[in-house]
Structures are given as C-alpha cells and as structure tokens.
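Recap from last week: sequence in, structure out.
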Amino acid sequence: MSVHRALGIVFFMYAQDFALIATPIGMVRVCGGEASIDAILIEQSGVMPIRGKAAAVINTINQLEQWFVGERNVFFPSVYVSGNASRKDIA
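Predicted structure tokens:
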C-alpha cells in the first residue's frame, strides 16, 4: 500500500507506479499501473519531478505535458473506474 499526500489530504491506495511532473499549476502526480491510472493529484510545493515506469502512467504524463505546452487539445488517459455497475456506466 502506498500513501499519497496532496493538498493536505492523505490518500491510501494500491498504486503500482507514479510520476511527478512540473506544470503551470504546480507539481502533478499521476498514480497507476500498466493498464490504467488510479489518480491525478496536484501536489504541495517542494517535491521534485519523477518519471514513472508503468505504461499507463507514462502515457498520461506524456499527454499532460503535450497539453500544457499547447500540442494537444484532447486528453485520453486510461482510467481505472471503481464502484458499482451503475456508477461505472456513468463513467
């Protein structure tokens, strides 16, 4: 289990990998595994960038970086959807 802290909130999750990137809105953490991401969090200041290794994390980080520099208008992360069947239908 890993612990993630963002905006003073602690998240406990079973994220397999994560990456941190510097963006115009601050440091952004992307958490997930090979198939999907579990969370995108805006971090408090004072953390350094880290490149992830899982495919879905790398793909999402690349898309975020492209979006922030104006090279991308559409964002397609592989997101893990949790909850019951009706909640998953909404996503």
